[in-house]
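Late entry, nicotinamide-adenine-dinucleotide complex.
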Amino acid sequence: MSQPPAGRVSGKIALVTGAANGLGRAIALRLAEEGATLVLVDIDTAGLAETERLIRTGSAGGSNRPPTSITADVTEEAPVKALFRQVLETHGRLDILVNDVGGGSTGHIWEARLEDWDHVIRLNLRSAFLCTREATAHMRVRGSGSIVNLSSGAREGTPWTAAYIGNSAYSAAKAGIHGFTRGVALELADSGVRINAVAPGPIETERTGPGFRKIEQLEYGPIRATPMRRIGVPQDIANAVLYLASDEAAYVTGTTLAVAGGR
Ligand SMILES: NC(=O)c1ccc[n+]([C@@H]2O[C@H](COP(=O)([O-])OP(=O)(O)OC[C@H]3O[C@@H](n4cnc5c(N)ncnc54)[C@H](O)[C@@H]3O)[C@@H](O)[C@H]2O)c1
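Prediction complete; structure with ligand written out below:
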C-alpha cells in the first residue's frame, strides 16, 4: 500500500489537551510529524516537557514552528478561557483542537461515591465542553476548524471493566461525548467547522498496559473480547485523529469512529 503524503496538516495550529502522556502525547507527535504547530496542554508539567522534547528532537521536521506547552486544568472555566486567549494572541488562530483529557473510575455502582461520579463527568465531559466552546467561538467566525474528541468503546459498556472494577460513570461520560459531538456538529455543519470523535478500544499506554495484562484471564479479557485479538497501540489512535483533524475528512462531521479491533 502506498504511504500517505507527508505534511497532511502542514501549517495548521493544533491544540492537544492531555498531551503529557499516553494517547495525547502520541496524537501530538503524529500531528507534529505531519507539519502542525503544536500547543500542548496538561496539568502534568514534567510530562509536557517530555512531549515537547520528543517533538523537538523527533521526526517532526515539517513543523513550521516549535511547540509550546501550557500547564492548565481544563476542567475549570477560568484557566480554559486564559488558555485560548493566550493561543489566539500568540498564533492569531486555531485550526485543530483535540480534546484528549479523560479517564477516571468510580468503582462498582453500588458503592460509587458521588464525588467520584462528578469527577469522571467533569474530567471527560466538562473539559470537552469548556474547550469546545472557546474553540468554536473563534472557529465559526473564521469559517474553518476541526475538533476531535476522545470517546471510548466504553460508550457501550466495557465487559472487562464492568466485571473488574465497574465503570458506569466513564461509560456514561463517553456516550455523552458521542452525543455532544453529534449535537455540536449539527450546530456548526454549515459554518465550515467540523467535529468528530474517536472511540478507542483497549490501547496499551504506560498507564493502561499493566492493568490490561492483569485482567486478561477474565472470561471477557481485553484481548479475548477484541476480534482482532490484540491490544491497540497509541499510533492506531493518533492516525485516526490525524485523519479526522485533516482536510482529508472535509465531508466528515458528527461521526464517532471506532478504532477498536472490530469490537
Ligand atoms: N488508553 C485506552 O485504552 C483508552 C481507551 C478508550 C478511550 N481512551 C481515552 O483516551 C484519552 C486518553 O487516554 P490515555 O489512556 O492516554 O490517558 P492518560 O491518563 O494516560 O492521559 C490523560 C492525560 O490527561 C491529563 N489530565 C488529567 N486531568 C487533567 C486536567 N484536569 N486538565 C488537564 N490535563 C489533565 C493527565 O495528566 C494525562 O497526561 C482519554 O479521554 C481516555 O478516556 C483511552
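The chain has one domain: 13-259. Will revisit in the morning.
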